[in-house]
Design a protein that fits this description.
Number of helices: 13
Helix content: 25-40%
Bound molecules: uridine-diphosphate-N-acetylglucosamine
Number of strands: 16
Largest sheet: 7 strands, parallel
CATH class: Alpha Beta
Structural class: alpha/beta
Strand order of the largest sheet: 3-2-1-4-5-9-14
Order of helices and strands: EHEHEHEHHEEEHEHEEHEEEHEEHEHHH
Shape: globular
Length: 370
């Protein structure tokens, strides 16, 4: 039986990937430092983790722990990362240490003890703004919106003549535009893995995850994705706080589809490439706030459209998933509404500490929300 090591395996995506791999007949080892921001100060083995997965508690930057975790592994799924875009803009050393040095430590260990395949989690954050179409039908890669524009609450992307741009799906060929330390880290991770994989003959695939949602997302982690943040507020009977005008678009992909994409990438014969992992559909943040409130039985808690903005936020990005469909056979299977219903069932048993306001305060103090 082949063994897969999942770094960051006790987290949200790792736990689902572990279950998918175990169901497909793999042995699974998880290396995780049980970071308090995600797992709480007691740092117990999470109850949602599949019992058949072996948990090795250790840090990705600790070469001895990584070597121990790699024993017997045939393949590696590298998910261990700090994942908050906002937090990456002030906890810079911690982000670079875990995300870049951690990947370096893993790759050094793999250079001594190669595996058959390495799959690394990258992110849509590397794209910056997604692709757009101009009124003349031209495909454009818009630049970041200037702060002066955001200060005037002019949220939409426009061309040089001030005409509105229409967002379109973003394929893997779009050039990266790195506008946060996190995005820089993720791009470094995927490039480091691809470069070292080529040098040591290890086939590498980097998966660029879009906005992943589903059960096990850490509700107490204020730097997690927007759906978990909204859920924590709704559980505390508070209205979701929406930045800008709420009409920014994202691609919400269910975590089970992401876990399936990881399995397909590990089982593929294809190497040295990057793939988007999204649903291929776009939704506005305002609409998902309303949808979540409805499935949680609180349609009265309508979104609070704040008109504030977060530094480094992009306006629109959603995935073109044709490449993954063709090469990996990746087809998202969980419909958004079904995923939300399931999330509501999971949330019904959760007590969430709503720390999002504190996190927004922290960003405000640093001038990262205005
Ligand atoms: C970012 C990263 C993505 C990463 C994800 C989770 C980019 C382009 N993408 O996505 O790679 O996986 O974070 O760390 O940087 N929002 C609100 N209210 C809130 C929180 C968020 O309105 O309380 C809005 C944001 O302004 C944004 C949207 O919701 O427009 C999505 O935010 P978020 O879930 O943080 O993810 P992204 O910024 O899309």
């Amino acid at each position: 039986m082949a063994r897969v090591l999942i770094t960051g395996g006790a987290g949200f995506i790792g736990s689902h990937a572990a279950s998918a791999l175990l169901s497909a007949g793999y042995e699974v080892g998880l290396l995780d430092n049980l970071a308090p921001q995600v797992h709480g100060t007691e740092r117990h083995r999470p109850s949602y983790l599949n019992r058949d997965a072996e948990l090795i508690v250790g840090d990705i930057t600790d070469s001895l722990a990584v070597e121990r975790a790699l024993r017997g592994a045939d393949m590696v799924l590298h998910l261990a990362s700090c994942v908050g875009v906002g937090q990456s803009m002030y906890d810079i050393a911690a982000y670079v240490r875990t995300n870049e040095l951690g990947t370096a430590v893993l790759l050094e260990a793999l250079s001594r003890r190669p595996v058959e395949r390495l799959v690394v989690a990258s992110s849509m954050s590397i794209y910056g703004e997604g692709l757009c179409r101009s009124i003349d039908g031209l495909t454009l890669a818009p630049a970041e919106r200037p702060v002066a524009q955001l200060k005037q609450s002019q949220w939409e992307l426009t061309d040089e003549q001030g005409r509105l741009l229409d967002p379109i799906p973003t394929p893997e060929t779009k050039q990266p535009t790195l506008s946060s330390i996190y995005a820089l880290n993720k791009y470094a991770q995927e490039r480091m893995c691809l470069i070292m994989g080529k040098a040591y003959g290890i086939p590498v695939l980097a998966l660029r995850f879009f906005n992943v949602f589903g059960p096990h997302q850490a509700l107490s982690n204020p730097y997690t994705g927007v759906l978990a943040i909204f859920a924590a507020r709704l559980l505390n009977k508070r209205r979701p706080l929406v930045f800008e005008d709420g009409l920014q678009r994202r691609d919400f992909v269910h975590v089970q589809d992401v876990a399936r994409a990881c399995l397909l990438a590990l089982e593929s014969r294809h190497g040295d490439d990057v793939f988007n992992v999204g649903s291929g559909q776009s939704r506005t943040i305002q609409s998902v706030a309303c949808d979540l409130a409805r499935v949680m039985g609180r349609p009265d808690l309508t979104p609070d459209i704040t008109g504030k903005y977060r530094a480094g936020d992009i306006r629109h990005c959603f995935a073109d998933i044709e490449k993954g469909r063709g090469v990996l056979g990746f087809e998202p299977q969980v419909a958004f509404d079904d995923g939300l219903d399931e999330l509501a069932g999971y949330l019904a048993d959760q007590i969430a500490e709503d720390r999002a306001e504190k996190a927004t305060e922290e960003l405000l103090q640093r001038g990262l929300v205005a």
